[in-house]
Specification:
- By secondary structure, the chain is an alpha+beta fold.
- The chain has 2 domains: about 70 residues; about 190 residues, Sandwich (Jelly Rolls).
- About 35% of the residues lie in helices and about 25% in strands.
- The protein has 6 helices and 10 strands, in the order αααβββββαββββαβα.
- It has a 7-stranded antiparallel beta sheet, with helices on one face.
- A hairpin with a 2-residue loop joins strand 8 and strand 9.
- It is elongated, with a radius of gyration of 57 Å.
- The termini are far apart.
- The relative contact order is 0.12.
- The N terminus is likely disordered.
């Protein structure tokens, strides 16, 4: 049963009291089922708020773990990079073998002769610089007057052209200080390829910047052949002689021997001749060289 309060008296009315009175009046008018429903609702609301609070607390570590890995990759990446770098730094450097030059320089201060020759060629100087024309004997100098001196000879290896009739090839330098410039232009013997057997006059050629006189000679036996080219030039008051020779043996007699390419062999010797330079010679050295020639 609802109780209704009258406000006939003049007393001031308290709003809070009025509100409580109304809510109390309303609560007293609800049934038991409605009250139970309200209690159940408040119970679920409390559980919901508690679960929300727990879920918020459980999400905090996840946020930290998201920001934390930013530092972790930097640590894990730096470790493997540092190891190879230190290994490379401590690895010993490989030594590269220096290749020797293909050519060797020969220089003689007494004669002033300088030239380049292949490293595989054999070098002989002085009295040993007397080449041989295969088995035909010592190669003679081709000056018109005596007094020639052997300076140097470089000879190709015997097996330079396997499977051919190649026997020998050399480049030789001689000098004669007893000749004038006009005499230096001539040779004691010259090319005898003329059909009548008459000698052929020497030719004039230019090797590099040097003017030279040149001739050639060919000699042979039943077993061997020798082709020789001579060059003369006048410098430092002396006549310089350059000899290029090729010896062959066995072609037509030795099984499996093919003729060597003569042009190829002489082209190799010509390259040596093209490097020849005659440096100025002191007068004391010239006098000493002339005295040694007279004593011979």
């Amino acid at each position: 049963m609802t109780t209704i309060w009258k406000s006939d008296d003049k007393k001031p009315t308290n709003k809070a009291t009025s509100a409580n009175t109304i809510s109390g009046t309303m609560l007293s008018s609800w049934s038991r089922q409605q009250k139970r429903a309200i209690i159940v609702c408040f119970t679920f609301l409390g559980l919901f708020l508690a679960m929300s609070a727990c879920s918020k607390q459980s999400q905090k570590p996840a946020l930290v773990s998201v920001s934390g890995p930013a530092a972790t990759p930097a640590t894990t990446v730096a470790a493997p990079v540092a190891a190879p770098a230190s290994a490379v730094a401590t690895a010993p450097a490989k030594k590269t073998a220096k290749k020797r030059p293909a050519n060797v320089t020969y220089s003689d201060p007494n004669s002033g002769v300088l030239f380049l020759y292949p490293r595989k060629f054999a070098l002989m100087t002085g009295d040993k610089a007397l080449p041989q024309f295969a088995p035909l004997g010592d190669a003679v100098m081709n000056f018109v007057q005596p007094g020639g001196v052997a300076v140097a000879i470089v000879e190709a290896p015997g097996g330079s052209y396997p499977g051919t009739d190649f026997a020998s090839a050399f480049f030789n330098v001689n000098v004669n200080r007893n000749l004038s410039e006009q005499e230096c232009e001539h040779f004691a013997f010259v090319d005898s390829h003329n059909v009548n057997g008459a000698p052929v006059d020497a030719a004039k050629v230019k090797i590099g910047s040097t003017d030279m006189a040149t001739t050639s000679n060919f000699s042979a036996t039943a077993m061997t052949q020798t082709e020789t080219q001579y060059y003369h030039s006048y410098t430092n008051g002396a006549c310089y002689e350059y000899v290029l020779s090729l010896g062959t043996a066995g072609y037509g007699i030795k099984d499996g021997a093919n003729p060597v390419n003569r042009d190829e062999v002489f082209a190799r010797l010509d390259k040596i001749l093209a490097t020849v330079k005659i440096n100025p010679v002191e007068q004391e050295q010239v006098a000493e060289a002339a005295g040694s020639v007279e004593r011979q």
